[in-house]
Amino acid sequence: xxxxxxxxxxxxxxxxxxxxxxxxxxxxxxxxxxxxxxxxxxxxxxxxxxxxxxxxxxxxxxxxxxxxxxxxxxxxxxxxxxxxxxxxxxxxxxxxxxxxxxxxxxxxxxxxxxxxxxxxxxxxxxxxxxxxxxxxxxxxxxxxxxxxxxxxxxxxxxxxxxxxxxxxxxxxxxxxxxxxxxxxxxxxxxxxxxxxxxxxxxxxxxxxxxxxxxxxxxxxxxxxxxxxxxxxxxxxxxxxxxxxxxxxxxxxxxxxxxxxxxxxxxxxxxxxxxxxxxxxxxxxxxxxxxxxxxxxxxxxxxxxxxxxxxxxxxxxxxxxxxxxxxxxxxxxxxxxxxxxxxxxxxxxxxxxxxxxxxxxxxxxxxxxxxxxxxxxxxxxxxxxxxxxxxxxxxxxxxxxxxxxxxxxxxxxxxxxxxxxxxxxxxxxxxxxxxxxxxxxxxxxxxxxxxxxxxxxxxxxxxxxxxxxxxxxxxxxxxxxxxx
Length: 483
Known about the structure:
The protein contains 12 helices and 24 strands. The chain has about 475 residues and is an alpha+beta fold.
């Protein structure tokens, strides 16, 4: 389309999609006074209530912005274990986090809370608005809507899911593997006695790893069963499809009825060739899709948004060092690659066949070793992540756990989405960067290094006690100091 701005509306960023990724990104941008418009094609929230799991790293990020307590009111905590290929192992002891649990919570609650948070911070959200085309030039992006309207912004971010219109219009390739295996998944009431269900699940799961019924309480179960032989892939599954497959696999349909939601998913695995094309960026499922095993998709998207938000805001506010925005791709795309690989592995371990099941049995034995179990849980939950910031102590590039600091907790100091210099020496200063970086001098902080510089996403950018070295790293991440 013609990118000339026939309509000018004063937005810095337009975000396509108001799911968890888009809403989180909008809020992160608003913390830096960026003018944000979020366009969501759906007019109403999803009618079904799907339970999702927030993993440890996402819970930490929610705590950094003061949102965790609100989420905890609507969620149910469970131990952070048994995620990898659904191999039933206990949560490792003493995981390196103050939030070492999984939070099961209805997805509409997460979306509503994050959207409300973004709106409270000043973002504008329009429902029933679909992006159908756009054009970009040196100064910005002109977005065309399904109703014929045009909007103008400096940047456009596609958070519009695995079938992303923004990605397709950008001409960004989405290579990977198409879906080979289909699975039915839903939540419904079950009449069979719990003891009978548990016994049958134990029996069947010996040979069918993509099969389970997990109780949510009040007779409601999460039901997963292979979809082989079930009708049209493009058509939504029905309760009769579930009954048919349950009888085929388990010999009984367990008396399932009154579904809350029904879906089917495949094992398609794809990764965008690039996350940025000029003034257009991708985040969440628009940039990567994979099977839901391990429950990592929603979490991966939220973490994309936390990485991108402050960097894009820095570019718009005019203080970003030149390569800062490009670090979004260099940091987050390898994370997505690793998630795609671990979901591929989990799907293989959940597939029938004597060879694959022999590998699963071997891994099940290895996971009795605490080091192996801990490694896999840290990988799934995101707390093992270390960005490559170059040479330096092992802590550099890693996230810092929520430690005790003077009269409170570290994450409480990150609510504004700014950098933070945590100084145990009393000699360091953020000086000319004080408009972007807070300074907390606390000799009692529960930290075994003299000082750390945290980025707004909670990752450690510098460790040490030398002011000159600190200034170099402040300039690297937060641009030129105030004059």
